[in-house]
Every structure is written in C-alpha cells, then in structure tokens.
Amino acid sequence: MKEKRISFGQGKGSLTHNNREFMADNVDPLRTPQNITFVRQPIGEAYDQLFEESTERYNAKQKRNNRKVHGSYYEHLFGVKPCNTVRTAADKRKSFYEDVVQIGKKEDSGYGTEDFQLVADCLKEYMEGFQNRNPNFYVFNAVLHMDEATPHLHIDYIPVGHYKRGQDVQNGIAQALKEMGYGTGKQAIARWRAVEIEVLNKICLEHGIKPLAPEKARGTLEVEEYKEQRRQADELALQNVQVEAQIAVKKAVLSTTETQLEEQQKLLGDTQKQVREATADLIKQEHKLEDSEAELSEVKAKVSKAQQDYEKQQKKSQSILCFLPDLEKDRQLEMQFSEYHGELRDMLKSLVSIMKHKDGIKSVVDKMENLVIKAQDKAHKADLTIYDLRVNQQNFDKLYADEQAKSRSLSSQVQKLTSEKSALTNKYNSLMAVYRQVESIAPEAIAQAKRVVEAERQREQELQQLEAQSRKNKKSWGLE
C-alpha cells in the first residue's frame, strides 16, 4: 500500500486566486480547464441567503433605530462591501474560513506521476461529502486545483450559528462547531479537524493509500558551566540588539519588495483580463457576422429563386400574350358579319323584297347574332387574361423588389459588421502586443521580486530563530 502524507491546513482565503481570476506563476494555464469547481457563489449573495431574513426579523423587534442593522449583514459586520478576501470584524469574526486539503507531495503525487489522478479522485470524493458532514459550515466556494504542482482542494465556507439572544442566525464559528457536536473551547476546531482528517484517511485507505501522520520536530539542549553560560548570555544579548535592528531593516525592504511584486502581479492580471474581454468581444462579433452572412446567403438564394420565378412568369406571360394575336387572325368573324350585313341590307331595300325574303332575313339575323355572341365571348376572355396577367406581374414585381431591398439591407449590415470586426481585431492585436510585452517582462520581474522576498523572509526567519534560541538559552540558564 502506498504511503502518503496528508496536509489539512487553514488557507489565506483568496477567491481571486481560487477561481483563477488571477493566474500566478505556478499555475499551468493549459491545465486550468481540468480544475473542478464544486460550488461558486458570490459571497455577498451567500450572506444574503444565510442572514437576510434573520436580519429583517431582528430589525423588526428593535424599537431604537441605533440598535438596528443598517445595510447588509456583511457590511454591518465588516464595514465594507463584500469582497474576495477574508475580512476580520471588530469582534474577531472572519467573513469566511478556508481549508486547504492535499494528499501527498509533488515528488510522489505531483503532475506527471502515476498517482496524480488517484489523489485527485480521493479529494473529489472527500469534497462531495463535506457539506453533508458539516451542515453549519455553508460552503459557497470550493475548487479542486489540477493546474498546479499537486492536486489540492480550496474549501471556503461561512460558519452559521443559531442564537437565542440578538440576531437569531449569525456568523459564528464557535456556535457552529458546538451545534455540530464538537463542544466548546479552543479545542473544538481541533476536534473537528481530527474527525475530517479521519474521514479523508478512510477514503485514502479505500483507494490503496496509507495516510501518514504529520512529522513532529524534536531537539535537545546541552547545559554548560555557569561561567561559560554567562559569557554566552552576554554575547546573545548583544546579538539580540543587532538582530532586532537587522529585522527592522529587512522588514522595511521586504515590505517595499512585496508592494512592487503586488504591483507587477496586478499589472499582469489587468492585462490578462483586458485580453480575455477583447477575445470574448471578438468571438461574439464573429458569431454575429457569421449569422448575418448566413442570413444574407439565405436571402440571396431567395432573390435568385425569385429571379428564376420572374423569368418563368415572363415566359408564361409571353405564351399567354401569344393568344392575343389569334384574335387578329380571326378577322373572318368580322368579314362574315360584313357579308351578312350586306345581304341583310339588300333584302331590306324594299317592302316587296322584305316580304319576299322574310325567312332569309330571319336566318341572316340569327347568324349575325351568333357572330356577335362569339365576338363578345372572345373579347371578355381576352380582358380577363390581360387583367390576370397584369396582377401577377405586379405581385412578382413587388416580391422581387422586396427581396432586392432586403438583400441590400443585409449586405450593408454585413459590411458594417465586417468593419466592426476589423476594428475589434486591431484592438485585440494591440492588446496582445501589449500583453506579450508585459508577459515577457513581468514574469522575470515577478520571479526576481519573489526571489528577493523569499530570501528576505528566510533571512528574517533565521534572525528570529537566532533571537528565540538566545532567549531560550537565557531562560534555561536562569538568567531571566
């Protein structure tokens, strides 16, 4: 069974870091998408969800205005708007608490090792049961980081306690621990952490990992002759004065260097944010352009089809119009009518002729009436044909004009979007140029600043250890 040491400690509580709104140097951005976010809720929203109703109940009971909670519960406790870092109230309550949980070290469980995914699975299983095990610790942000050296959890929670006096629901870690059965006093948090570590131990064992207990430091001190002790004590006293002076100087240097480091990190973070926003705008504009181009293509297809239909209608109109010349060819009706008219005129020249050709007159009149009916029928059909043709032509002309207008409008829109895309592309390229310049300078500057900070911190620790050892020696020798 593989042996791995478990780390379960209190974190600084930086939601900007946890949610990768700022990318530190030790983060591999190519693996950031592998991070697992279990819950991500703005802290202001979480406070309103947990305490808003109880604040309203509390205010409703108060008769004096100066005893009421004004504004949000968060602002009442910490005096500021909700923010992404831990805030401490006047009564020592913190805006939220963070625990960082890790299994193994970089050497045996880091990226590239065979157990990298194994420890991640254990941490995921542990996190999935955290909220049920701890109902009074409201988890509003929890992330499993897979993009650093070793997988680890950041669990950010707000302790919720219930009270008989004052506001009935409050931020209170002592009361939250008590309600969950861990008792009271300074050891309550230690008892809770021991139970959680045991839960994690069981999960590790189920996955073939033997969890190791934390290492403990030990040491011995050899007592020398009193005279020698006195001499060393005097030397240590002098060293203490020198050490304190050096610590003061180093702290000043360290503070300045840390400020410069924060400025470099902020510059890089702001530039990264601008690049991300410009990239998002560019992608959004490309999508709009693609949609407009697709719509334009569809309208052009409709215009093309309308053009084809228009040409077909023209051909149909020509074929219908070919019918009209047939009316001219059918002049024989007119000629026959003229002949019948001549015959009738001859028959009606005199009364004797009328009496003689009475039957013939009736026959000719009947024939003339038939010719008139035929002529009227053909004329009516021709009128209907021409009217329908005119209406159809007008409808097609309107449809074609509408599609042409829509096509021109979309072409103009596509041209405008193309111009906007070009402007966004130029802006994006400019930002990328600035970002590359900052990126080429910032990492080295940040790395150098970090090296200075680390060296100064190490030196400060050495000086503090020397001072502590001096005091320990003096105390053991009875000189204090």
Automatic annotation (TrEMBL):
GO terms for molecular function: DNA binding. Belongs to the plasmid mobilization pre family. One of its GO terms (biological process) is DNA recombination. It comes from Ruminococcus bicirculans. Residues 471-480 have a biased composition (Basic residues). The keyword Ribosomal protein does not apply. This is Plasmid recombination protein. It comes from the Bacteria. Keywords: Coiled coil. InterPro entries: Mob_Pre. Residues 226-316 form a coiled coil. Residues 458-480 are annotated as: Disordered. Pfam families: Mob_Pre (PF01076). The keyword Coiled coil applies.
